[in-house]
Design goal:
The chain has about 220 residues and is of the alpha+beta class. The chain folds into two domains: about 60 residues, no CATH class; about 130 residues, NADH Oxidase (3-Layer(aba) Sandwich). About 40% of the residues lie in helices and about 10% in strands. It has seven helices and six strands. Strands 1, 2, 3, 4, 5 and 6 form a six-stranded antiparallel beta sheet that branches. Helix 4 packs across helix 6. The chain is globular, with a radius of gyration of 21 Å.
Length: about 220
């Protein structure tokens, strides 16, 4: 879990992970254990730090929404790299990492994809679009081959959470297993047959603020004790 959300933690460092909820009280209680420079190293402060990290991760998960309208502002190379690092931190079956990520910043190509595939939202001025693809040359053999879908789905969710944590908007738009869409994307991006697009993710500065939905439903849970 810690590995999966490492980029998310970096993106939200401004929240102040190294400070306690009540710094003055903590300093008084831990005066003998904390250093004179104010570096909190005692168990009391470490517990506060862990609580803050947990809150940040859960807040990002529970407040993420699908954003489909963007301002057109470009993303920096640094922002894109953070998104890709978050995606590639995902787990994969036998650690095969059977993925390839296509990053599209060309406005003409984005518009062309949006025109041909309106569901991709690439016509709505995203800063870029990222296409997570399964690389069939890296998958498990035999019955485990299709685990690439699980692997790329985990990577896609990581990317969506990282985008949200960075103040960006993104949306998962489906491609696979609709083979007509798969073929269209392969042609538009010049992909080999062994590179299979799972989805298209438009990413950018949000031009809308969708309402956060409460999706927890106890009826969808079965406990076996």
């Amino acid at each position: 879990m810690k590995k999966i959300f490492v980029c998310l933690m970096m993106a939200m460092a401004v929240v102040g992970l190294n400070s306690c909820q009540n710094k003055k009280a903590c300093e008084q209680e831990c005066q003998r254990e904390c250093s004179q420079e104010g570096e909190h190293k005692c168990e009391h402060c470490k517990q506060h730090e862990q609580m803050n990290k947990t809150d940040i991760v859960l807040e990002a998960i529970q407040t993420r929404v699908s954003v489909r309208q963007f301002t057109g502002e470009k993303l920096s190379d640094e922002q894109i790299e953070k998104l890709l690092r978050a995606a590639m931190a995902a787990p994969s079956a036998m650690n095969k990492q059977p993925w390839q990520f296509v990053v599209i910043t060309n406005e003409e190509l984005l518009a062309k994809i949006g025109e041909q595939m309106p569901n991709s939202r690439c016509q709505n001025k995203p800063g870029c679009a990222i296409v997570p693809c399964g690389d069939m040359s890296k998958t498990l053999e035999g019955a485990g081959r299709d685990f690439w879908v699980d692997d790329l789905s985990a990577a896609t969710e990581n990317l969506l959470l990282a985008a949200h944590a960075m103040g960006l908007g993104a949306c998962w738009t489906g491609v696979h297993p609709n083979m007509e869409r798969v073929s269209d994307v392969q042609k538009l991006l010049g992909l080999d047959e062994q590179i299979v697009p799972l989805c298209i993710i438009p990413v950018g500065v949000p031009a809308e603020q969708p309402e956060v939905k409460q999706k927890f439903n106890e009826e969808n849970v079965r406990y076996i004790k």
